[in-house]
Amino acid sequence: MTRLVKPAVLGAAMLASAAAVGATQAAEPIKMGALATLEGAFTVLGQEGMRGVELALQEHNYEVAGRKIELIKASSNAQPDSAVAAARKLAEQDGIDIMIGPLSGSEGLAIKDYAKTQLGVTFLNGASAAQDTTLRDPAPNFFRFNPDGAQWIAGLGEYTYKVKGYKRIAVVSEDYSFPYTMVFGFMKDFCKLGGKVPEKFWVPIGNKDFSAIIASLPEDIDAIFVVMAGSDALNFLSQYFQSGGDKPLVASSMTVDQSILSSKGRSKDYLVGTPSATPAADVNPLPEWKAFVDGYRKAFPKGLNSPSLFAQEYYVSTKAALAALEMVGGDLSDGHAKFRDALANLKLMTPAGMRSLDANRQVVTDIFLTEVAKGEDGDLKAKLIKVVPQVNQTLGESMDKFLAYGPVGRDNPSCP
Q1: 409 in a domain, yes or no?
Q2: Distances (CA, A) of 56 to 38, 46, 62, 237, 406
């Protein structure tokens, strides 16, 4: 068959065999696992991630290329061992073909390593955004259609320095791989322009008491860069507001995500005017975004005021899997070879604009520079200020130059 020089009878036999394999596959459902943080400080974010998966599958009636999709959900608590245990059950007990997830940064690093032991499963990232999940030593069967933390924040360092006029900023951040990546992305431009970061405060996920950090914030700063999500962000904002804190804020994407802006309490109003950068802006003129919001509200009337970036990112990853499956007719034979080739070369129009992958299977995407504003309905929204087009993982620099910065961490970069 491959060279068209085989005897006719052998060719007929191979065709019959291929047809039998195709018929068997078509009769079997595709098992899709979805892993998100449904426990711990990021529970709301995990619930949003699952909504994104479910919405994408609902739009396809849980079927692609004539094959049913069987969704199997799994939960983690944002810790790497929890994520790996859940992924192991999905892959080794439930027999999934495809996994969407995880959500948190250090989970992503752990799942990348686990993926290398499960080459029969194709992994599509959920929303985890640690840099080295794909930048260094990527897994051949792990695809990330979502930006990493440095990409998420592209343009914010320059905007903060040039437009907001903040020259000295303290960082208050959760203490793990994803926030390190995001702080790196912010400081790379901010420090290059002359900005200073005299203090960084690192807190564990699930921290509830921020009084010591609030009391230790330097007086001679212009603003605070807050890099926290879920209940951690809400606790810090509430305690800073109640303490009489008056420094303006600069926010990470998840600190002004709808999981925060839709919450109750006066402390969130302190965020009005706060700049951020994000892969998901609440006020976005794209028709794909409007369709996504309308679909989300119809499917989840008890969800958030607007879909969060975590709903969007899980939705995008699921849509990418479905698009690639459609392209190959649902064929997952030969170790998913055709399916993975389709994923690697996919150009997908999403609620956040056009997305494609680089050689490391890492997304290139638009990023939205925003400020928090109060809408006509009184709800807080991330108002679009500017689109930073097609940001790649090396932020426009050559791979060699970018790698020379070294792995991100608590002290890299530094500009005291």
Answers
A1: no
A2: 19, 16, 9, 33, 37
